[in-house]
Design brief:
The complex is a heterodimer of chains A (about 230) and B (about 140). Chain A has helices at about 5-30, 45-50, 75-95, 115-125, 130-140, 140-145, 150-160, 165-175, 175-190, 210-225; strands at about 55, 65-70, 100-105, 195-200, 205. Chain A is α+β, with helices and mostly antiparallel strands. Chain A folds into two domains: about 1-30; about 45-225, Glutaredoxin. Chain A has a five-stranded mixed β-sheet with strand order 1-3-2-4-5, sandwiched between helices. In chain A, strand 2, helix 3 and strand 3 form a beta-alpha-beta unit. The longest helix of chain A is centred in the N-terminal third of the chain and has 27 residues, at about 5-30. The radius of gyration of chain A is 23 Å and the shape is elongated. Chain B has about 140 residues and is mostly helical. Chain B has one domain (about 5-25, about 35-140): Up-down Bundle (de novo design (two linked rop proteins)), CATH 1.20.1440. The chains are: A alpha+beta (about 230), B mainly alpha (about 140). The interface of A and B includes residues 32 and 172 of A.
Amino acid sequence: MATSPGGLKRFYAVFVVMALAGLGALGYLLAKPATVSIPVNVTIQPADTAGFHGYVKGDSTAPVEITEFADYQCPFCQTFATLQMPTIEERLIKTGRLRWRYRDFPLQQHSFSWLAAHSAACADDQGRFWDQHQRIYEGQAEWSAARDGAGIFRGYAKAIGLDLGRYDSCMSSGKFAGRIQASQEEGSRLGVASTPTLVVGGRLYQGRFDSDAIIHLVDSLAPRAAK
Amino acid sequence: MNFRMGAALLSLLGLFVSAYLYLYKIGRIGTLACGTGACETVQASAGSRFAGVEVALIGVAGYSALVLVSLASLQPSLVARRWPVALLAGLAGLGVGFTAYLTYLELFVIHAICRWCVTSAAIIVAILALALLELRASSRRQAA
């Protein structure tokens, strides 16, 4: 193989330019503000679900419990959370008639559902799940159209006063991915196929709901559950 | 530009691809430019580790070795020798075998295809092809 000195010089020039470009690209990625990606389809470990059965709001002695399986990026879930839940909270949860259990059911077609669910779980780590939950739903139109929702969720975390160091560490660890996966799989086992789905006494209610329908449902169940 | 130079440039490219995946795996890069999310699925799977070592780190080590051997094969004292290219072909052959195993895992165990892994697979196959072409050319030169 004959290589002229000129040819070798040209090769080294190309090699050095490629090396610098590659190092520059990696350096840029390392210097960029941290963004997060939550793994999906993870293997569920026993510790992921130990003692955790959803995020609960309401009196532990309330006669009726409703479990909601929902997806943060689902428009119907957003409408339900922002328009119907305040009334349900005032009339049923705060009055001790209803206990609400929220379970994650992120849908595969939504790019930020897992990230949103994990962000809320990290807020729960600091005892602020419902605040972050509400902010995420309220901002759905903003983050669902973004290139990267992680920064927006971090902004919500900051706005509700979370310790950002702990939040960042929680998000980058992806430590609640297994819990979210477990919640989704449990929903599938129960027959949940779309969001939002409410589970009341083992029965599934799918579709759009309003606060009147929920109040009517609780009215019909409360005497029976109170026996 | 000859086969050895091509192999050196491709090895460098492969080194950056595996370094990118490794930096993601150790949490230094938040998201992978992947599009489908399948890269995260592959990287989070048990198949992303081999014998307790991150596969991406094995890639970094392997491509680093290929860069060094291919650059060494271009040195004036070795340029007429056949063994550096044979070593390059041997290393690339190991890389292709390992890549075939990983591709099997992606297709039949993880059920997700990471496009960066496909890129690396194409690079390692191309390096092996260049090394084999150089070996053949070297045999012809010696016979002439």
